[in-house]
Each structure stands twice: as structure tokens, then as C-alpha cells.
Design brief:
Helices cover 42% and strands 17% of the residues. By secondary structure, the chain is α/β, with parallel strands linked by helices. The protein has two domains: 146 residues, Aspartate Aminotransferase, domain 1 (Alpha-Beta Complex); 233 residues, Type I PLP-dependent aspartate aminotransferase-like (Major domain) (Aspartate Aminotransferase, domain 2, 3-Layer(aba) Sandwich). Helix 9 links the parallel strand 8 and strand 9.
Length: 393
């Protein structure tokens, strides 16, 4: 086959576009967090990962602006060479204290954090073990590693133990799980995973991309939520969600972070986080430390919405966080539901395979601490109206 033939034959997305149901790459002309403007029309945003609503927080905005004034717009180089500012080191030190680990290493994106961490640690003869619903960046990090990747059924501890039992006792082993799973909104059972990792001499890495700012005291993450911080070897997080910025970090023992720093290709060969992004993270972190009410407000909103959806007859799976899936199943009803909500003034996310397993298409909804009760009541009313119209409920 000629190289570009696959491109010319790719028609699935264009078919959905022609029907008016295409839900992706929609440009926003304005956003204040809980509402966005599209083609001059305001919609309530329930499809963002801006969990604490800090993208428009005055303190975060001003910190980013001041960093541009002082440092300019870019570091124009990698952390390894000329791209490390005092701001980067300050952020790493403050994050290490926040999540309760010896050291932190900051990457340019969360995706690169998982790629660099996993691929640098898992070498020939090692094995990396992942939950089947882990994020794509974890899977891609495993693909880049020279070790072997094994998988276990989602949050199934018996299956995890089965996989661990199959491993050579002398192999290096890394178990990687999401803290909050990005599609289902459920939480990895760390109190059950930790003993299994200890029993089989495996290291444990938790991807807290959707958990920092959400779970634990002041939003310190999944390990803090369960009180097992000392038993989790590596904590990964992103800055594109609760931190209202862009980038990622890995936290753990200083010696392990030192090794990753000198072996993670996605760190060494990528330009570093720009000053404005680092400053925004520092400001967001200060808000998290000083305003414990934000995560509490976020969870109260999530509780309200879960109860509301269940009362309407929606299947929301096992969600226990601000990520609440509306399980639909087939692709076309999912697109139709998305479009009807979009037209009614609600912005959500349609997720179809391979983002979810076959016949598990869903609307991914997510919430912010800054949403108002009036907005949430409006969303539930529209979900009732649209769900009945489309035939989902």
C-alpha cells in the first residue's frame, strides 16, 4: 500500500461531520471556566478538567503575567542544558513537600512525564504491569520501554495477583495505576494494591493526573486520600488540570528521580516548561495549600450530580469523583445525545472506542469547584429533557 493511501481512505470522521454530529476540535472564542462561548453562544462547560476552577483565578493569572514580564515567553531549551530556571527548582521543592516525597522532577507535559518515567525505569528483563483502563500515556510509556508489559483487569485485585504470580521473582517489576480513572471516575484501591506490591517485590507508581487537587487533604492526591503515601514509590501528576497550567511531574525518592533526570529522553530532548506555566503552577499550589474549601466544594458538586443523574435513570458506572460518565453504549446514540445537549447549551465530551472499550461509548462529564448550584440544576434539567427525547432514559 502506498504510504498515504490509508489517509485518503479514512472516512469515518468525515461521515460523522456530514451528519452534523462531530464533537471534536471545536474552537472556543471565550471561556471563563464554567461557561464557554462558541459562535457567539454561551454554553455551560461540564467537559473540562479545570477541577478547582483556577484558570481564571486572579492570583494565578497575575503570576503568569509577571513571569512573562520577568523571564519572557520561553526558556528556548531543555531542562538538561539551558532551560532550567530558579522557578523550576522552586516548583519541584514545593511540590515534593506538598505530596510528601523526597524529590520532584518537572516535565513539559504530563504525557511526557509518563513516557519518560516508565521508559527510563523499565529495561530489558523488567516487567511493567498496568490496569486495563490506564491512560494512553501510560500504555505508550510501556511501549517505549525495553521491558515486557502485562495487564490486569480493571481494579481486579485477584487478577493483579495472578499477573504478579506469573512474574519471575528476580525480575524488576513496576505496577502502574491511575489514581482516578479518567473515563470511569472511579479510584484505584491503593490499600489493596500496596500489600500485593510488597508481597511480590514490585514498585508502585500512581498516576494522579486527575487526583491532585481533588482527593486527599488540600488535594494532595490518592495516596494521601488513603493514607499510604509512604507505601507508594512514585506519584505522577499533571499541571493541565487542577493546576490550571501545562506540564507534569514525577515525585519519589531522590536517587530514583536523579536516575530519571539523566535517562528520560522525553525530558532531555524537550524544551522546558515556559516561565508563565511554571509561575501559574506555583500560584495554583499556593491556592490549594491555603484554601481547603475548594476540594470540599468540588466533591459536594460531584455528589449532587451523581445523585441527580441516578435519579433520572442514567447509568454512571462506579464513579465516586468529579468525573462522572454517562454510559450509553453505541456510538451513534452517544453522538446524538452530545449534539442535542450542545444545541441546548451544555458542553460535554463524547467518548467512543478506542477511548473506551467496544460498545462502551459514553459522555464524559466533569465538574469544577466554581460551578454554581443554578448551573448544575440547569444541566440536570437539560439532561432529563434531552435524554427522554433521544431515548437514552
Amino acid at each position: 500500500m502506498e504510504l498515504f493511501e490509508k489517509c485518503y481512505n479514512y472516512v469515518q470522521a468525515k461521515e460523522v461531520m456530514s451528519m452534523g454530529f462531530y464533537p471534536y476540535f471545536i474552537p472556543l472564542s471565550d471561556t471563563e471556566g464554567t461557561e464557554v462561548t462558541i459562535d457567539g453562544r454561551k454554553l455551560i462547560m461540564i467537559g473540562s478538567n479545570n477541577y478547582l476552577g483556577l484558570t481564571t483565578h486572579p492570583q494565578v493569572r497575575e503570576a503568569a503575567i509577571e513571569a512573562v514580564r520577568k523571564y519572557g515567553t520561553s526558556c528556548t531549551g531543555s531542562r538538561f542544558l539551558n532551560g532550567t530556571l530558579h522557578l523550576h527548582k522552586q516548583l519541584e521543592e514545593e511540590l515534593a513537600d506538598f505530596v510528601g516525597k523526597e524529590a520532584v522532577l518537572v516535565f513539559s507535559t504530563g504525557y511526557q512525564t509518563n513516557l519518560g518515567t516508565i521508559s527510563s525505569l523499565v529495561g530489558k528483563g523488567d516487567v511493567v504491569i498496568t490496569d486495563k483502563e490506564d491512560h494512553a500515556s501510560i500504555i505508550d510509556g510501556c511501549r517505549l520501554a525495553y521491558g515486557k508489559m502485562l495487564r490486569f483487569r480493571h481494579n481486579d485485585m485477584a487478577d493483579l495477583e495472578r499477573v504478579l504470580e506469573k512474574c519471575d521473582p528476580d525480575q524488576g517489576k513496576l505496577v502502574v495505576v491511575d489514581g482516578i480513572f479518567s473515563m470511569g471516575g472511579d479510584i484505584a484501591p491503593l490499600p489493596e494494591i500496596v500489600p500485593l506490591c510488597k508481597k511480590y517485590a514490585a514498585r508502585l507508581m500512581v498516576d494522579d493526573a486527575h487526583s491532585v487537587g481533588v482527593l486527599g487533604e488540600n488535594g494532595r492526591g490518592t495516596a494521601a486520600h488513603f493514607g499510604v503515601t509512604d507505601d507508594v514509590d512514585l506519584i505522577m501528576g499533571t499541571f493541565s488540570k487542577s493546576f490550571a497550567s501545562l506540564g507534569g511531574f514525577i515525585a519519589g525518592d531522590e536517587a530514583v528521580l536523579h536516575y530519571i533526570q539523566h535517562n528520560a529522553r522525553s525530558l532531555i530532548f524537550s524544551a522546558s516548561m515556559p516561565p508563565a506555566s511554571v509561575a501559574a503552577c506555583l500560584a495554583a499550589l499556593e491556592v490549594m495549600r491555603t484554601d481547603p474549601e475548594l476540594p470540599k466544594r468540588l466533591m459536594a458538586i460531584a455528589d449532587k450530580m451523581r445523585r441527580g443523574y441516578q435519579a433520572l435513570g442514567y447509568n454512571i458506572g462506579d464513579s465516586e469523583t468529579p468525573v462522572i460518565p454517562i454510559m450509553i453504549g453505541d456510538d451513534m446514540p452517544t453522538f446524538m445525545m452530545w449534539r442535542a445537549l450542545f444545541d441546548a447549551g451544555v458542553y460535554t465530551n463524547a467518548v467512543i472506542p478506542p477511548g473506551v472499550p467496544p460498545n462502551k461509548s459514553l459522555l464524559r462529564t466533569s465538574y469544577m469547584a466554581t460551578h454554581t448550584d443554578e448551573q448544575m440544576d440547569r444541566v440536570l434539567a437539560l439532561f432529563e429533557q434531552v435524554g427522554k427525547k433521544v431515548g437514552v432514559i
